[in-house]
Design goal:
N-terminal domain of MutM-like DNA repair proteins, alpha+beta, 2 domains, 4-stranded antiparallel β-sheet, about 25% helix
């Protein structure tokens, strides 16, 4: 699933391509793509026609287009969703779910989703954030993110540090890939109990995570298959810089120890057994 860098790459592309343009038509090709819109497909289209896009925003893994009418078009890409900005005469994609045209007859916005796990909805916003995601925490590259509040909240928990990183009520935008990469940089094992972490260790982890996310954003995110692309259809290149994720059995670049893969929450965790020794008391 796309994480913060991938979603931010898409947001930047939408901002460049759509801000200031007015929606002319909306065609919903699959009702599941707008299942989170309370009024259904017909209402989804009706409320968007004539609206002008004034900004493209993001929180964690969610992104939205701010509309001049006060509402927002909220989206989540799910496992395979793509928001593409393409020429109006481009043939329809196989898994095209929603198609937006604009009053200037320029490039279209298309929501393409092979597995239909992603979704779009028009919702209200409170204090600039869509109401359905108001409970989601800020991400660590947000200027208003509080390191102190995060450290205090994590130290109050009784869980493993990776589970805390994936908890979107504590910090948003970090998923399996970037959690593993950040923990490797910080030399912390994913099962380390949060209550045993010092403020210094958590500060080191935040610094590592910011570095990983910033570098991934510069590389256009991480693409493991053709389903994650920017609005222009370009793949991210950060997979070439991954140190542990998906590298089981390969040598750690710091110490040469083979990377270990463990089952974790129906997924996997990748660590260096030497750089990230498993704690005697661990939360899986």
């Amino acid at each position: 699933m796309p994480e913060l860098p991938e979603v931010e790459v898409v947001r930047l592309g939408l901002e460049r391509a759509l801000v200031g343009r007015t929606i002319a038509t909306v065609a919903v090709g699959h009702p599941r793509a707008v299942r989170r819109h309370a009024g259904g497909a017909a209402d989804f289209a009706a409320v968007l026609v004539g609206q002008t896009i004034v900004a493209a925003s993001r929180r964690g893994k969610y992104l939205w287009l701010d509309l001049d009418g006060g509402a927002v078009l909220l989206g989540h890409l799910g496992m395979s969703g793509q928001l593409l900005v393409v020429a109006a005469d481009k043939p329809a994609e196989t898994h095209l779910r929603v198609r937006f045209t604009f009053s200037d007859a320029g490039r279209e916005l298309r929501f393409v989703d092979q597995r239909t796990f992603g979704a779009l909805a028009v919702v209200k916003a409170a204090c600039g954030v869509p109401e359905p995601i108001a409970h989601i925490a800020r991400d660590i590259v947000d200027p208003e993110f509080s390191d102190g509040d995060f450290v205090a909240a994590v130290r109050r928990r009784r869980t493993g540090i990776k589970r805390a990183l994936l908890d979107q009520s504590l910090v948003s935008g970090i998923g399996n890939i970037y959690a593993d990469e950040s923990l490797w940089r910080a030399r912390l094992h994913y099962a380390r109990p949060t209550e045993t972490l010092t403020r210094g260790e958590l500060g080191r982890l935040l610094e590592a995570a910011r570095g990983v996310l910033t570098e991934a954003l510069r590389a256009g995110g991480t693409s493991f298959d053709a389903l994650y692309v920017s609005v222009n259809g370009e793949s991210g290149l950060f997979d070439r810089s991954l140190e542990v994720y998906g590298r089981a059995g390969r040598p750690c670049s710091r110490c040469g120890t083979p990377i270990r893969r463990d089952a974790f929450m129906n997924r996997s965790s990748f660590t260096c057994p030497r750089c990230q020794p498993r704690p005697r008391r661990a939360h899986s």
